[in-house]
Structures are given as C-alpha cells and as structure tokens.
Amino acid sequence: MKQLITAAIAFLALFISAPLVKADWVKLADEGDVTLYTDSEVTRENGNYLFWIKAEFNTPEKRKETTETLSSEQTIYSMSYLTVFDSNWNKSRIGAVSYGGESGDIIETSTYDESEMEFQYITPGSMEDILRKIAKAIYAIDQVSDEEEK
C-alpha cells in the first residue's frame, strides 16, 4: 500500500509539473504481478465524475487466481472498472467492470446503475480516497486545459 501511495503522489506531481500529454492509459503502479493504470481523462455525467481504472495481471499465477476468483471460463488478463464519484467527491460506486483476454479483447462487461451498486462514503486513507485524489487532479488539469483552448 505504501508503494501505491508513493506512486500516486509521483503521478500527481508528474501531472502538475510536466506538460500534459494525453494518452488512453497512464501507468500508476507496477506491483510485479499486477500493473495499475488510470485513464488520462475524467468525464462528467449527470453531475457525477466518471473515472476508469485498469489492472493488468502480469503473471500466470495472478491470471489463474483472478480467473478462478471470478469463475470465468476464459483466462482473465486484465480488469477495467469505472469508478463513479458523486458531485461532491464524497462517495463512490462501481459503474462498470470489463474483463480482458490475452489479446486485449473484451471477454465480458457488466454495467451497474445506482440501484444495483449504491454510492458508499469514501474512507480517508483508503484506495478509493487515493483514486479520488488522482481523479480530482486530472479533472482540474482538464478544466485548465479546456479554458486555455478557449
């Protein structure tokens, strides 16, 4: 967890101090058997903030563990999930989950509305809190970039 927090801080410093180069996925952390990525963009929908996270499973053991845990018939090489933050950034929920195969193809996607996956308050210091801070920083940078383009 300490490595992830350090990576998150480095990630924020990179976004704030360097010119922003847009890419689909930005590497957040590499924990050996799992590499974490964030989307380089935060979008707004119905007053909420939408932010994608992706985990790539780098070892056969981690892929097997994940595949078995999720009871999938196909080997899962990656998992992407959409985090939805409320309009005040105080709560979050999962909006969608996608599982990727070896060649990057989508094996399965599930979407969840608010009745299926309720908003939960974010606990300070939790993984969701770290992701919220990253998403807020990316959103703020996007807003500045949009204003500069006008």
Provide a descriptive summary of the structure in words.
Helix content is 33%, strand content 34%. Residues 5-23 have low confidence and may be disordered. With 150 residues, it is α+β, with helices and mostly antiparallel strands. The chain has one domain (2-149): Lipocalin (Beta Barrel).
Quick summary:
With 150 residues, the chain is of the alpha+beta class.
Q: In terms of quaternary structure, what is this?
A: single chain
Q: Beta-strand percentage?
A: 25-35%
Task: Let me know the number of strands.
Answer: 8
Rg result: 16 Å
Helix content: 25-40%
CATH superfamily: Surface-adhesin protein E
Helical stretch count?
A: 3
Tell me the span between the first and last alpha carbons: 40 Å
Overall 3D shape: globular
Profile the largest sheet.
8 strands, antiparallel
- Poorly predicted runs are 5-23
